[in-house]
Amino acid sequence: MYRVTSATAADLFDITATRRIERAAAAALPAHTLMQRAGLAVARLAMAVAPHARTVWIACGPGNNGGDGFEAAAQLRQRGFMPVVTFAGDADRLPPDAKASLQRARDAQVIFAQEPPTDYELTIDALLGIGATRPPEGVMVEWLQEMDASGQPVLSVDVPSGLNADTGVLSRRISADARTPRVCLTFLTLKPGLFTANGRDAAGTVWFDDLGCDKHAEPPTARLAGRPKAPRRTHASHKGSYGDVAVIGGAPGMAGAALLAGSAALHAGAGRVFVGLLDPSAAPVDTAQPELMLRDGHTLDLSDMTAVCGCGGGTAIRAALPRVLTTAAALVLDADALNAIAADSALQMQLVSRAQRGQPTVITPHPLEAARLLGYAASDVQADRLAAARQLATRFGVVAVLKGSGTVIAADGDASPVINLTGNAKLATAGTGDVLAGMIGAALAAKQSPFEAACEAVWRHGHVADTWPADAAPLTAGTLARQAPV
Ligand SMILES: NC(=O)C1=CN([C@@H]2O[C@H](COP(=O)(O)OP(=O)(O)OC[C@H]3O[C@@H](n4cnc5c(N)ncnc54)[C@H](OP(=O)(O)O)[C@@H]3O)[C@@H](O)[C@H]2O)[C@@H](O)CC1
Ligand SMILES: Nc1ncnc2c1ncn2[C@@H]1O[C@H](COP(=O)(O)OP(=O)(O)O)[C@@H](O)[C@H]1O
Ligand SMILES: [K+]
Description:
Blueprint: E1 2-3, E2 9-12, H1 15-27, H2 33-49, E3 55-60, H3 64-78, E4 82-87, H4 96-107, E5 111-113, E6 122-126, H5 139-150, E7 154-157, E8 182-187, H6 199-203, E9 205-209, E10 222-225, E11 244-249, H7 255-267, E12 272-277, E13 293-296, E14 306-309, H8 317-327, E15 330-333, H9 335-342, H10 345-356, E16 361-363, H11 367-374, H12 378-383, H13 385-396, E17 399-402, E18 408-411, E19 418-419, H14 432-445, H15 450-466, H16 477-483
Parallel strand pairs: 3-4, 3-6, 4-5, 6-7, 7-8, 8-9, 11-12, 11-14, 12-13, 14-15, 15-16, 16-17
Antiparallel strand pairs: 1-9, 2-10, 17-18, 18-19
Helix pairs in contact: 2-3, 3-4, 7-14, 7-16, 8-10, 9-11, 11-13, 14-15, 14-16
The site of ligand NPW has 28 residues, from helix 1, helix 2 and helix 3.
């Protein structure tokens, strides 16, 4: 069993692949073995999460997820805890493994009750796992609400009930005020839905147990990339070795966004950073950051540069885009550049033809920008973030970075998409997206592959927020840019 952190590199498997893996694992073992191992693992983690607990409320559902709960109840009872099981199902209709575990719980003198106990120190959610076919209903809803409101730790078995393990869409709301600590122990595979959309909030800290099963050869649905290697600078390198970044943006009144991207590129190690502002009346120098070379955005020669285009671009970016799309050696497209492209099929064709010319492009939409590019609603994008990122990458021949909780990075081609595990809501402040675009620009300018550049910059960007001290002043985009690590 291990805890998943932002440093974890691992493959992720959707429900269909997990079912195949589960079937092969079950076939290789004596009957009921997998569920017994799962229940024991739940009991062990429960004791680690709440060693002081006496009463443990275990809510069990009508399928094998409930079976894991019965098995955990038996194990906890044998270790002197007081598990109280509430069962939302019909004993006669349980699948065979779960039926056997129900009997084991009864044999262990586990208490079965109609209602949750009045006092308990830990809840185990074994209502629904990967077999959920629709949102929880009836008494399950009441029990899940009670868990959310209890303030006691919740241990979700395999997946939090009501969470789609493929997409991370949660069929219920978890209040932002809920102080309930959450852990999830997932079996056999790590599932993508635990790490994106609502998955992070619903699952909390994710633990993984392979239940002692052999390795398998299923192709992954997606990956966690883990901590990137620290880049090394050779002694005999010079500023040309790290490339030029040109930020194109900063329409009247929005110079700040372009300067933030420029600052991030600079602090992320670009050799030289130009900022091509689209405001003809812009000041010729940023005295706070004199390293940035301010130029006219319409005339900068981009043929040997990595352009970062769109930050604070407003509607003025539209006129600059045909030249940027055709001439930039490498390109990051963000914000208003994406909105302009979404509204203009000629620009879309120019974007697609960059890939055909071998000019790499990374796009960094948030869900609404992604929705505009795909012609969907933002809710459709959020309904399946992996699919949306893959579609963007394929349709435009780019590396797509779909931002938000559990940022997804997808490339056009065979590589599995990556879900990034760094970052938190401290980044939910204006300008942090401009900073990310600048950081990706610096990585591209240093000649990293576009997919790697995007994955690593996204990881580092989030890592700054993850390591930002809890008692420090709020993280601002300007500070984030200056922290952008090489
Ligand atoms: N088999 C193994 O080897 C191992 C399996 N393992 C465990 O099994 C879990 C998967 O078990 P599972 O396939 O039985 O599905 P599960 O998630 O329990 O739900 C299905 C049941 O719920 C019902 N139901 C669905 N939605 C509902 C709703 N909204 N409201 C009410 N009811 C609803 C559905 O009914 P139906 O849709 O048929 O009407 C069916 O009865 C997996 O996550 C892991 O924990 C581990 O022990 C490892 C070894
Ligand atoms: N709750 C969150 N968890 C993780 N990352 C977040 C969260 N909120 C925002 N971010 C990150 O912050 C950045 C915000 O970018 P964006 O929405 O473009 O903002 P802006 O346009 O103001 O710069 C993205 O990298 C996004 O992934
Ligand atoms: K569950």
